[in-house]
Amino acid sequence: MTLLAFDWAFTIEKAILIAIIISISLVVAMYATYAERKIAGFIQDRVGPNRAGPFGILQPLADGIKLFFKEEVTPNPSNKFLFILGPSLAMLTAMMTSAIIPWGGKIELGGRMVDLQVADINIGILYIFGVVSLGVYGMMVGGWASNNKYSLMAALRGASQAISYELAMGLALIALLMLTGSLSLRTITDQQIHNNWWNIVYQPLGFLIFFICSLAECNRAPFDLPEAESELNMGYHQEYSSMKLGFFLFAEYINMFISCTVIATLYLGGYDMPFVDESQLSGITALIVGLLALFGKTFLLIFVFMWIRWTLPRFRYDQLMNLGWKGLIPLALINMVLTGAIVLFMMK
What we know:
Blueprint: H1 8-43, H2 59-69, H3 80-96, E1 106-109, E2 112-115, H4 124-145, H5 149-180, H6 185-195, H7 199-202, H8 204-217, H9 229-232, H10 242-267, H11 283-309, H12 317-347
Antiparallel strand pairs: 1-2
């Protein structure tokens, strides 16, 4: 019985890719805080951060250093182990979601075909749902372990909100699955490139439902009920300080970045540049064009996320749940039935 040779080149290649994706996610999350404050300042006719570096460009670094060097405070009544586990889970699950996103096409380097995707699994969408569902545990564990009634109430709100909106999101993706016939994000992206039409054309209602559910899953306004400062102080991370608080805040912005990338991949063609035939370009040029296309769509969606935050007021909690159960789920079911009927009609 012979053992298969271990592919060190493949392992090193994937390790480098993972390190690059994690680094990019952290940098984007860090500067998303700067963009958020600048956009808020523009909308509210203010300047925004302008002290740390030219145009305040070093403000995220100053905030990170401040969080890193602040005193760690762990409340005496808290469960110490779970108190640390909560933000760790939130950060871990936020990072794990990026593993199945195709960041670009394949490129030849050193005689090897390098795939800009950590793992191309045929159940990619189910993997996303599984990891996103685990992210709720970080919120719940952190809120419960704090032994603070406001933190616990916020964690319960966040968990029920996530469960409610995951249903509509899943139904929207079932309709997309009917059209694509695959759960692999690579396959879904390739189909959009070869069809010359993005999935938003075929699934406009599904895109809208998925986008709204993504706002709720990321606890973004107007669905930021777990962090309703007016009634719950700071929400489920009320008792956290220093880098444990930083992990929760970073995880929130990483989730927003990854959610926007997933939306761009599923509905906006992923790394497909409109009106450009990538097959006519050289390997490096096609790679750069694809990365620019994907990040351009992602940053546009992040801007819309932030624009919505600073223009729409927060829902009441009953309005939030009514929208999820009585609004989005029936709409997603109607969209699924219509898509099924159209697919059945086209097959005949």
